[in-house]
C-alpha cells in the first residue's frame, strides 16, 4: 500500500449486506483536522500510515500503551489480524469515519479490534462490541453467512480460534442445519397429507455444497458437528461427495519423470491422502444398505490404493464388500496405480478381500436363518 496519509483515508467496503455504524460518525469530507500534520507513523507490514495520536489512543488500548512516551512518533504493529486492510478500517473508526461492517470484513475487524484492544474499557461503543453485535445478529442465525465468515477465519488463525469465533460458527452451522432438516421434514409431511405430487425443494443441498470453500480442518469440524447433532446420513453423504469432488480437482497423480515434477507430485499425493483419509473417517456408519453410493466408495479406494494408509484402504474394502451386490464391474476393478497408461494392472489382493467380505456376509446370513429355524 505504501505511504497513506490521513487525507487519503476514505470509506471502503461498501456492499448490500452491511451494518453502518451510527455513533459519533463523520464523513471523510467533514474532516476537521485534515490540514493538521500527522504526529504518528504506524507501520503495518509493508504499509505506513501517517496519523494522529489522539484519535487512536482514545479508542485503542494497545496503541495507548505503546505511546506512554510522549516523544514517540513511530510505532510498528507487525501482527494485526487482517493486515493493513483491517488496520485501515480500524483507524477510520477511531477517527469517527463511517465504516461498514459486512460479511467480508467482520471476521478480520473482530480479530483486529481484539488485537488493538478496542474495547469498552477504553471507549464506549467501541469496535469490538460493534463487530460482536453484527456477528450475533447477522452471522450466527444464517447458515450461508456462517460458512462464508468461517472461511474468512481460516486466514485469521490463531486469533479467530482464541476468540472462539471458529467454534461458535461451527456450532451455529450444526444447530441451524438440524433446524432446517426438521422444517424440511415437516414441509414434506404437509405436502404428503395435502396430496401434492411435487416435493418441495430442500435447502440442505445448497448449503452442503457451499462447505466446499472450507479448508480440510474446518470442513471436518463442521461435518463432525452436524453428525453429532443428528443430520441425516444421506445428507452427510452428499456433503462428503461434493467436498471430495471439489477438493480433488486437479490432483491427478502422474508418473514423475523430472525432479521438479516429483516434488509437485509428492505435494499432490500428500494433499490427496489427507482428503481421502479424512473423508473416510467422516463417512456415515454402514450396514448392508448404505447412503454412500458404491461408485463413490470405489473412487475413494482407487485413490487410496496409491496414497493412503492400510487402515484406510481396509475400511473402504470393508464398506464395498458390505454392499457388493450393488456394484458394477468397474467398481471392483481396482487399478494398482492411476497413471492412466494402457498397461493398467489391477490390485487382485484388494479385489479378493472385497469378495471375501461379501461371501462371509452370505455365510453369516445362512447361519442366522439356520439358528432361527432351530429355535
TrEMBL record:
Residues 205-375 form the NPH3 domain. Belongs to the NPH3 family. InterPro entries: BTB/POZ_dom, NPH3/RPT2-like, NPH3_dom, SKP1/BTB/POZ_sf. Transmembrane segments: none annotated. Residues 38-103 form the BTB domain. Keywords: Ubl conjugation pathway. It holds the Pfam family NPH3. Gene3D superfamilies: Potassium Channel Kv1.1, Chain A (3.30.710.10). The keyword Transmembrane does not apply. It comes from the Eukaryota. Pathway: Protein modification; protein ubiquitination. It comes from Brassica cretica (Mustard). This is NPH3 domain-containing protein. Coiled coil: none annotated.
Amino acid at each position: 500500500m505504501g505511504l497513506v496519509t490521513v487525507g487519503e483515508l476514505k470509506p471502503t467496503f461498501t456492499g448490500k449486506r452491511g451494518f453502518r455504524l451510527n455513533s459519533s460518525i463523520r464523513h471523510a469530507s467533514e474532516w476537521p483536522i485534515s490540514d493538521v500534520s500527522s504526529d504518528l507513523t504506524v507501520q503495518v507490514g509493508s504499509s505506513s500510515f501517517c496519523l494522529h495520536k489522539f484519535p487512536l489512543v482514545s479508542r485503542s488500548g494497545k496503541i495507548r500503551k505503546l505511546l506512554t512516551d510522549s516523544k514517540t512518533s513511530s510505532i510498528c504493529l507487525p501482527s494485526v489480524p487482517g493486515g493493513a486492510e483491517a488496520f485501515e478500517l480500524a483507524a477510520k473508526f477511531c477517527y469517527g469515519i463511517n465504516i461498514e461492517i459486512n460479511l467480508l470484513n467482520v471476521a478480520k475487524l473482530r480479530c483486529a479490534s481484539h488485537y488493538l484492544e478496542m474495547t469498552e474499557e477504553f471507549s464506549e461503543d467501541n469496535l469490538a462490541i460493534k463487530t460482536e453485535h453484527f456477528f450475533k445478529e447477522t452471522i450466527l442465525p444464517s447458515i450461508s453467512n456462517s460458512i462464508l465468515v468461517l472461511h474468512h477465519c481460516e486466514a485469521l488463525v490463531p486469533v479467530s480460534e482464541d476468540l472462539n469465533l471458529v467454534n461458535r460458527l461451527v456450532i451455529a452451522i450444526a444447530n441451524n442445519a438440524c433446524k432446517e432438516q426438521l422444517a424440511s421434514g415437516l414441509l414434506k409431511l404437509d405436502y404428503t397429507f395435502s396430496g401434492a405430487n411435487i416435493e418441495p425443494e430442500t435447502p440442505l443441498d445448497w448449503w452442503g455444497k457451499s462447505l466446499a470453500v472450507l479448508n480440510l480442518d474446518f470442513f471436518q469440524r463442521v461435518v463432525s458437528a452436524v453428525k453429532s447433532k443428528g443430520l441425516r446420513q444421506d445428507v452427510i453423504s452428499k456433503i462428503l461427495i461434493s467436498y471430495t469432488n471439489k477438493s480433488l480437482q486437479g490432483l491427478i497423480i502422474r508418473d514423475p519423470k523430472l525432479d521438479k515434477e516429483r516434488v509437485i507430485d509428492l505435494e499432490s499425493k500428500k494433499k490427496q491422502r489427507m482428503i481421502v483419509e479424512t473423508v473416510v473417517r467422516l463417512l456415515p456408519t454402514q450396514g448392508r444398505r448404505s447412503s454412500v453410493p458404491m461408485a463413490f466408495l470405489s473412487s475413494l479406494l482407487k485413490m487410496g490404493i496409491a496414497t493412503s494408509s492400510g487402515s484406510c484402504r481396509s475400511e473402504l474394502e470393508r464398506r464395498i464388500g458390505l454392499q457388493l451386490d450393488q456394484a458394477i464391474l468397474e467398481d471392483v476393478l481396482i487399478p494398482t496405480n492411476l497413471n492412466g497408461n494402457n498397461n493398467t494392472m489391477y490390485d487382485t489382493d484388494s479385489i479378493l478381500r472385497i469378495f471375501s467380505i461379501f461371501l462371509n456376509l452370505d455365510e453369516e446370513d445362512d447361519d442366522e436363518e439356520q439358528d432361527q429355524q432351530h429355535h
